[in-house]
Design goal:
The complex is a heterodimer of chains A (about 110) and B (about 110). Chain A has about 110 residues and is mainly β. Chain A is built from no helices and eleven strands. In chain A, strand 4 and strand 5 form a beta hairpin. Chain B is globular, with a radius of gyration of 13 Å. Classes of the chains: A mainly beta (about 110), B mainly beta (about 110).
Chain lengths: ~110, ~110
């Protein structure tokens, strides 16, 4: 059973607020990912990390930023939330066999 | 850029019937092909991972095949149950180790 956690699970916030979505894993995985998913649509990679102090932007342009100071922790920050940021955000980590393990997701609504 | 397509977008079957879910991808230079299950409002659960050198992978009632040359993978679920109702996503892992996802097939198994 994979142990990867995301908080909060649901967040409703006003335009212009700064928010941080938390993601933690206890498996010691080096590779971690953030995906964005709109209802009924495919997942899009927005950020990834191959280890501590490594962060890269994904294929989908995003106004968010990430950091990786500790192996187990990969938070995503939006400096100024907008209604266009309303979506589900999924965090994942990858094991040695290239299998990805996903957290439960954060459903963000920006009003 | 890898494009992944899943057809049909939705499927409804009576309990006990076998399920056949299709996935196609445009770039055959993949590292592996992964199938996931997603329940409403939840994250993804890994079902099967097929390496590029393999033709199929089995786990219980699930069997996935891979034909790289034609850019296709098929997920078979035998003797479907109401608990199999979910959205099933396939993802092609490119040689840069990033996943490209399809939009999924939403399955309803009627009791």
């Amino acid at each position: 059973e994979a142990d990867i956690y995301q908080t909060p699970r649901y967040l409703v916030i006003g335009t212009g607020k700064k928010i941080t979505l938390e993601c933690s894993q206890t498996m010691g995985h080096d590779k971690m990912y953030w995906y964005q998913q709109d209802p009924g649509m495919e997942l899009h990679l927005i950020h990834y990390s191959y280890g501590v102090n490594s962060t890269e932007k994904g294929d989908l342009s995003s106004e968010s930023t990430v950091s990786r100071i500790r192996t187990e922790h990969f938070p995503l920050t939006l400096e100024s939330a907008r209604p266009s940021h309303t979506s589900q955000y999924l965090c994942a980590s990858e094991g040695l066999g290239y299998e990805q393990y996903f957290g439960p997701g954060t459903r963000l609504t920006v009003t | 850029k890898q494009e992944v397509t899943q057809i049909p977008a939705a499927l409804s079957v009576p309990e006990g019937e076998n399920l056949v879910l299709n996935c196609s991808f445009t770039d055959s230079a993949i590292y592996n092909l992964q199938w996931f299950r997603q329940d409403p409002g939840k994250g993804l659960t890994s079902l099967l991972l097929i390496q590029s050198s393999q033709r199929e992978q089995t786990s219980g009632r699930l069997n996935a095949s891979l034909d790289k040359s034609s850019g296709r993978s098929t997920l078979y679920i035998a003797a479907s149950q109401p608990g199999d109702s979910a959205t099933y996503l396939c993802a092609a892992c490119s040689n840069d180790y990033k996943l490209s996802f399809g939009a999924g097939t939403t399955v309803t198994v009627r009791a």
